[in-house]
Design goal:
The protein is 35% helix and 23% strand. The chain is of the alpha/beta class. β6 and β7 form a beta hairpin.
Amino acid sequence: MNLYRVLEEPTDLRSPALIVSFEDWVDAGSAGSTAAQRIAEGGIVVVEFDSDALFDYRAHRPTLDIVAGVPKRFEWPEITITLRRLSERDVFVLRGSEPDRAWKAFGSAVTDFALAHGVVQHVSIGAIPAAVPHTAPTPVMMTGSDASLMTGNNIEGLLRVPAAAVSLVEWSMAAAGLPAVGFWAQVPHYASPYAAGSIALIRKVEAFLGVTIGAGELETEMAAQMQVLEEAIAANPESSAYIERLQSLVGEQEVPPADRIGEEVERFLRARRRGDDGPNPFGPSER
């Protein structure tokens, strides 16, 4: 099955790395997908995947623009690979909506492309909802295909959660012998979007790959989001008390135990099935 077409053949690549992030799942506060968008900024789309083969359009419905009663444009869900030539080295950025089907074939196709174009490192980025306050630096957990690759906030013990397509790609890359790591921001479950999480992920990518990307307009977005949160907290004593409780936990444990992470993911799953975002410390009027 040919799942993608090459729009422009990449040449003269310099130690390319592959960075992967998808929307929808493991993307709390849109932190991972926004970081990937920033990393790809200014790059060239070189690969386009077959949306008919990878998406269930009832789950990822295309949008239709109707102007003055006349249908004008369909916008389909998409997955692309963008080549960004940084000053230090090149990076491919695989991003878009998380595919609904053909995960195994998709993982193999991505890995084949990476091997054919000399990719030497893989980085997954994403975010999970967590009981952390927005007033503290964003914690970032790390996974890796080998213990020697990992430093800092690593998960201890067994963690069993619903898998994501981004993890399947990381798994496929590691199985092909490529060093693969993942960075997972812990995002306050009450804050979305959350630019602070995106910035934290970008900084992890910069440090790991030895590149310079910068946060760009995300710094301004973060400041605006923080102001909105602070105003909401100031207007609600219960919210203030809730944030104070979260702040009291900061520093006790950089990475929560696996069972606590699992509980948070399960809470998030239940909220999605209900069609809401779960408990909100700011009340229904500030959702």
